[in-house]
Amino acid sequence: MEDQKIIELFWQRSEVAVEMTAQKYGAYLKKIAVNVLGSETDAEECVNDAYLGAWNAIPPNRPDPLSTFLGRIARNIALNRYKRDHSQKRYAGFETLLSELEECLTDEGENFTGGEVSQLINEFLASVPAKHRNVFVRRYWYGDSMEDIARLYDMKTAAVKTVLYRLRQGLKTYMEEEGYSL
Asked: In this structure, which topology does domain 94-177 adopt according to CATH?
């Protein structure tokens, strides 16, 4: 079913909207949640919460594209759950992703809001080749493993590691040039 039809079902408050969303985007949302949480069971709960989040957000929103809207909801729910469970050390995978980016981004960025940092990252990513940008996004937005990224882009895992390292170094330099103190 087309996204616009699914959105219209949400606007009509039809429960079929959730069923169609689950059929079309369930696996995608679960992959995002599993990458953050490392647990299939926890991911399934987050996906169900994402459906509820979409139900509550549509209307008034008419998201375009729907996939990104749903992905953001699922990711935010998974991140919140990760933060809640973090003290229990259930999954170290997301901690690894954060530590990789730590050299580029710290909490000490003077006078920068989260939105401004996000804008700087987007500007930096717009300046790199599309394949490298996609590798960065797959790793740090979707939380994909380096092996999965290598398969997806027909690269060796070592090449993915090198690309990510160079991107982090480039991002660090760009952030410093833009006045973000590290």
From this structure: Arc Repressor Mutant, subunit A (1.10.10)
